[in-house]
Amino acid sequence: MRKSILQKPEEIDRAIDLIGSKPNFTAQSLYHIWGLKLRKRRLELDLTQTDVAKIMHVTFQQIQKFENGTNRISFDKVAMFCQQTGTGYGYFLSTLNGRTLVTNTGG
């Protein structure tokens, strides 16, 4: 099994900054950052993907997909994580501070 390259909080922060610095901040950008923030907080709390999966009532594979940006993490899953880990909602919602969410303009 291949481990993610982003294992240290500072590496995750750099990836978040890179995504957030793009001129068009889309829903895809938001969910990708939320996945990275989930990974960062999980590592800070010394939780496994299986631990987080139990909190969110999903599989650990789904957590992997949230963390690598393959799948979008819904706000109800974010709320479950925050409630069960004592993480403030602002940890995730601050992603929007100073940004305007724009519509995807094509694919």
Uncertain stretches of 5 or more adjacent residues: none
Strand order of the largest sheet: 1-2
Largest β sheet strand count, sense and barrel closure = 2 strands, parallel
What is the average per-residue confidence, as pLDDT, rounded to a whole number?
Answer: 91
Strand content: under 5%
Q: Helical amount among residues, as a percent range?
A: 55-70%
Rg result: 13 Å
Shape type: globular
Q: Output the number of helix runs.
A: 6
Spell the H/E element sequence: HEHHHHHE
What structural category characterises the helix and strand content?
mainly alpha
Kindly report how far apart the N and C termini lie: 31 Å
Number of strands: 2
Give your account of this protein's structure.
The chain is mainly α. The protein is 58% helix and 4% strand. It has a two-stranded parallel sheet. It starts with 8 loop residues before the first helix and ends in a 5-residue tail after the last strand. The mean pLDDT is 91.
Keywords:
mainly alpha; globular; single chain; two-stranded parallel ribbon; 58% helix; 107 residues; 6 helices
Summarize the structure.
The chain is mainly alpha-helical. The protein has 6 helices and 2 strands.
Helices and strands, with pairings:
Elements: H1 9-20, E1 25-26, H2 27-44, H3 49-56, H4 60-68, H5 75-85, H6 90-93, E2 101-102
Parallel strand pairs: 1-2
Helix pairs in contact: 1-2, 2-4, 3-4
